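WARN no homologs supplied; continuing
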Amino acid sequence: MEPDLGPRTGLAPRLIVNWIFFSCSLIIFNKWILAESGFPFPLALTMCHMAFCSCFAAAVIKSGKVEAPSMEMDTYLKAVVPIGALYSGTLWFGNSAYLFLSVSFIQMLKAMMPVLVFAVGCLLKTEKFSWGLFGNMVVVTIGVLIASYGEIEFVMFGFLLQILSLVFESTRLALVQILLQKRGLKLNPITSLYFISPACFAFLSVPFIVVEVPKMTASDDWTFRPGVLLLNCCVALALNIAVFMLIGKTSALTMNVSGVIKDWLLIGLSVVLFASPVSGLQIFGYLIAFVAVAYYNLKKIKEKQAAADAEKRKQAGGALLAQAPAGPSDSKV
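OK structure emitted
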């Protein structure tokens, strides 16, 4: 039985607050480690996250506290491995962007996520194209472009890294729907980490060996703090669990709507903690994108509510038919 998410229990608000807290904490923490603390190796940092999450999930499952669903190798290779590959790209490029861009600007660029999800969904047939949605996505894009033009410390390479991260993530979300849901695979927070994190770690190891190992061995101008990295990994694990809990007990749409609060909070924190400069033109552009994204989320909420109401009417109609008295008998005495 699903828990009550209404105001009596307050479960949904608590899940939202947990997700916002751990998401903001990890983003600020990653930015500090990569750009401020002397450890500019996003691949190494991300691999630490994946290794820690894999070991934690394996320990929980092997202890018998959580049961992992059986999965054939063919299913793993065709469904989980592609998702792990895309997730590794999301994390690699997303964390690398912190070396070049401010947290505030990265959050503004993330307003492009609905646009990319819509575009990839139309290509892969998981979204239905409509000119109304297309127009809405154009407005979002214009707002993000204005914000990018107004960015004082704009770095093209960092901009491209963040856009690549969003492309990988939007494609991953579409493949989750296609590969996992159609196969009837239901993964909880622990089993998701158990299956996906090792694949992600394996894909990250290749660019790590090629790109970062030579840099790490050729220079001593960096600092390794095991305690700091362990704490960072714990926050990453907590965020992964918070994401799956929020989506599992509410919906992905709830997370998207809550993300608006998180984005504004991160923009403010970036200005306060890292003295990130934000121009008036940048805020103006982001406001355009923000309003368009808010309108998009509102439409999604109304569509979901309409679908739920239609389902209730259908069930109520079926119940009335089941309770209706039988007609007169045709048999003769």
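Residues 57 and 63 are 10 Å apart (CA to CA).
OK
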